[in-house]
């Protein structure tokens, strides 16, 4: 009996012991989790206090200094998608404002976005706090920054990647359906991505992205044949089940299974070994998770409409401007769904978008011309869209044939003012049977008739200038004029500037005038200096002694440009130009707008040139634009607006030309040579007028230049009607 009582008492002690053991283990559960990092250190991988943290209803988000306070509230709510962005403090300066202003605004309450950074940064972080404070009211999703303890800013971000995944596994494996791991310089088309993910079962083990096998130029990544990792830059998506199965193995993968320095490769290896799946290798993964391989990254040229409209993620985005362009594109697309062109047979109107611009010439463009080689890229993309449409159509009709591929052969284009751009294009299609044996193939040659209207009568697209401080010095338009031995003409130019700009206190802040003057014995320097005293911030005078430098317009313009900084706007004008205030405002606005959507823009305005009064004396005002008073000079390039750094890009002005003209033509040709990188804009500006003066052609020894000068002189003597009247009135022709 005593032995049985002792056994019962011993049994109760064992139960009591294990009860207290379980209680204390549960009490320290969160401390254990927070200390379970991907390194040998026993410290937390977050910058949390070292004491145990008992997470209450709203305390989880309180550990993060930078967060959207209104949306980061309930840490127990279920989330559909968690976006993990790998970045660094240095890169945040460029990319955090871009994210705030663009794709983050399209997120919803079912999404959380986390930016992962290194633990320490020696610089200042005030800009981060200001961005979060300013943007809170515009963001619907929870967005916060996590500083990973013991992580430094290094590339490739191997440690940062695994620590971030450990964080997601610890806190989100039961909360989120999907994880998207992303680089900071990627753009996310959230509405289309969410719609697509909701069609997929997140309870399956899935590892989605653009499949890769490593670069041929580098050493092997040690992956089995026909197995792929998801490339990190263009986005890696993990389902909830994959995250749950992967999490317990992250430590082991990081400590002992790394074989390369590439974090996306090693994450793929960890998933392959322990979850037993590799990255999807669907035919359209490169389209949905788009990575651009350069060397240029321009919106509309490299990131074309066809690419943008189909992609969930675009990478890499080089600067804030392209982020904004993509955001505006997707916003307009949501307002009115972008219709991809479907080619049809002749005599059926169709519309297709090209990004190339052209200058209309009535004589040249009403006739068919061969399609420019630069268009072939866009046509081939559209041919591919047509083939995909044809494949679906034949499949729906249970056809025995299918189209394998096709290519552009040749084409012609012309401009019809009534309709717009018209093209005739021929393509070659390869087709074969799909349900017949033996298989047969054939080649089909098709001709298509395409039209693109100048304006959509139902909707006019617009591009907004955003996030630009127009009062910055770099948005001033700095007029530059070079003069020599033409004091009366120069004084007219200066008084024109004074009347139109300096007398307007508001416009005065947006324009400056720089005069480079080749000085001889006669001089108007004193008169100019009087204006400089009155307007010291608006007028600058640079004097070149002509005993040291012979007059050379190209040299003068180049010397004057050296007084300006890299990003300032320059507007080179001939001294014979008269201008209106509105023409200068138009030029400034145009340059600001174009530079907001293009990294390089140069504007050659088409100005109105007055005829001489040799054949007719009329009483029309000099400001009148009339067919009998002058013409618009299409072939003049001496007046040009550009940014200083774009001028430097082509080597500046020609400085060895001491005769008439040609330095402006050479400048234009230099920009034409880099037209794929720099946007050349031409437009008629009636507010810029060139006053006639006799050209000094007799001193030109080079025959080609002499002929050009002489032709320009003859062209401005008068209109054809005036010359005919002059001939008949003076009876120059004999009967």
UniProtKB/TrEMBL annotation:
SUPFAM superfamilies recorded: Nucleotide-diphospho-sugar transferases
Alphabetically ordered keywords of this record: Golgi apparatus, Membrane, Signal-anchor, Transferase, Transmembrane, Transmembrane helix
InterPro entries: Chond_GalNAc (IPR008428), CS_glycosyltransferase (IPR051227), Nucleotide-diphossugar_trans (IPR029044)
Predominant location category: Golgi
Entry keyword annotation includes Transit peptide: no
Top class in the EC scheme: transferase
EC number(s) on file: 2.4.1.-
Compartments, record wording: Golgi apparatus, Golgi stack membrane
Cellular component, GO annotation: Golgi cisterna membrane
Keyword flag Membrane: yes
Pfam families, per database record: CHGN
Topology class, membrane: Single-pass type II membrane protein
Molecular-function GO terms, alphabetical: acetylgalactosaminyltransferase activity
Membrane-crossing residue ranges in chain numbering: 12-30
Family membership noted in the UniProt record: Belongs to the chondroitin N-acetylgalactosaminyltransferase family.
PANTHER family, alphabetized: CHONDROITIN SYNTHASE, HEXOSYLTRANSFERASE
Name used for this protein in its record: Hexosyltransferase
């Amino acid at each position: 009996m005593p032995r049985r009582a002792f056994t019962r008492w011993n049994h109760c002690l064992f139960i009591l012991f294990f009860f207290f053991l379980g209680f204390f283990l549960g009490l320290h559960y969160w401390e254990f989790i927070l200390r379970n990092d991907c390194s040998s250190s026993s410290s937390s991988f977050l910058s949390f206090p070292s004491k145990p943290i008992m997470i209450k209803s709203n305390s989880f988000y309180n550990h993060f200094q930078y967060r959207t306070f209104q949306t980061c509230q309930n840490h127990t709510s279920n989330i559909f998608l968690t976006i993990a962005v790998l970045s660094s403090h240095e890169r945040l300066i460029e990319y955090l404002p871009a994210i705030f202003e663009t794709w983050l605004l399209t997120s919803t309450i079912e999404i959380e976005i986390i930016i992962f950074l290194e633990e320490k940064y020696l610089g200042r972080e005030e800009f981060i706090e200001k961005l979060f404070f300013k943007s809170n009211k515009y963001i619907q999703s929870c967005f916060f920054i996590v500083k990973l303890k013991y992580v430094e800013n290094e590339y490739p971000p191997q440690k940062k990647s695994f620590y971030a995944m450990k964080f997601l596994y610890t806190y989100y494996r039961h909360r989120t359906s999907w994880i998207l791991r992303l680089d900071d310089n990627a753009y996310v088309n959230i509405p289309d991505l969410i719609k697509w993910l909701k069609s997929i079962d997140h309870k399956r083990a899935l590892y989605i992205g653009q499949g890769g096998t490593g670069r041929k130029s580098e050493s092997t990544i040690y992956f089995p044949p026909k197995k792929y990792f998801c490339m990190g830059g263009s986005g890696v998506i993990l389902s909830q089940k994959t995250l749950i199965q992967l999490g317990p193995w992250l430590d082991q993968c990081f400590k002992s299974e790394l074989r390369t320095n590439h974090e996306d490769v090693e994450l793929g290896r960890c998933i392959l070994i322990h979850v037993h799946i590799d990255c999807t290798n669907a035919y359209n993964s490169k389209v949905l998770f788009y990575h651009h391989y350069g060397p240029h990254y321009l919106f509309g040229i490299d990131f074309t409409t066809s690419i943008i409209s189909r992609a969930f993620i675009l990478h890499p985005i080089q600067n804030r401007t392209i982020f904004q362009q993509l955001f505006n594109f997707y916003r307009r697309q949501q307002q009115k769904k972008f219709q991809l062109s479907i080619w049809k047979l002749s005599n059926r109107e169709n519309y297709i978008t090209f990004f190339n611009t052209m200058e209309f010439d009535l004589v040249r463009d009403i006739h068919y011309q061969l399609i420019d080689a630069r268009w072939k890229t866009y046509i081939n993309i559209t041919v591919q869209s047509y083939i995909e449409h044809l494949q679906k159509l034949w499949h729906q009709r249970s056809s025995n044939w299918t189209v394998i591929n096709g290519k552009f052969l040749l084409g012609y284009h012309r401009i019809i003012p009534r309709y717009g751009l018209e093209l005739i294009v021929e393509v070659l299609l390869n087709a074969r049977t799909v349900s017949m044996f033996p298989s047969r193939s054939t080649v089909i040659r098709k001709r298509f008739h395409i039209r693109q209207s100048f304006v959509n009568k139902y909707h006019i697209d617009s591009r907004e200038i955003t996030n630009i401080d127009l009062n910055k010095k770099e948005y001033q338009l700095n007029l530059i004029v070079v003069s020599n031995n033409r004091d009366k003409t120069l004084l007219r130019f200066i008084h024109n500037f004074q009347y139109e700009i300096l007398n307007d206190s508001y416009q005065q802040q947006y324009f400056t005038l720089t005069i480079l003057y080749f000085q001889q014995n006669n001089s108007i320097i004193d008169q100019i200096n009087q204006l400089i005293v009155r307007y010291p911030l608006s007028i600058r005078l640079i004097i070149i002694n002509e005993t040291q430098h012979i007059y050379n317009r190209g040299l003068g313009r180049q010397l004057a440009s050296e007084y300006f900084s890299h990003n300032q706007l320059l507007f080179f004008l001939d001294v014979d130009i008269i201008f209106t205030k509105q023409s200068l405002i138009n030029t400034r606005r145009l340059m600001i707008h174009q530079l907001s959507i293009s990294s390089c823009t140069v504007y050659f305005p088409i100005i109105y040139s007055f005829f001489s009064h040799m054949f007719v004396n009329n009483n029309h005002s000099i400001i009148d634009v009339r067919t009998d008073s002058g013409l618009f000079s299409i072939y003049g390039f001496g007046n040009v607006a550009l940014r200083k750094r774009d001028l430097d890009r082509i080597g500046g002005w020609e400085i060895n030309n001491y005769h008439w003209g040609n330095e402006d033509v050479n400048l234009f040709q230099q920009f034409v040579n880099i037209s794929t990188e720099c946007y050349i804009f031409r437009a008629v500006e009636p507010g810029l007028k060139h006053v006639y003066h006799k050209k000094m052609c007799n001193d030109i020894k080079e025959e080609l230049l002499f002929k050009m000068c002489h032709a320009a002189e003859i062209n401005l003597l008068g209109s054809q009607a005036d010359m005919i009247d002059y001939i008949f009135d003076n009876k120059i022709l004999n009967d």
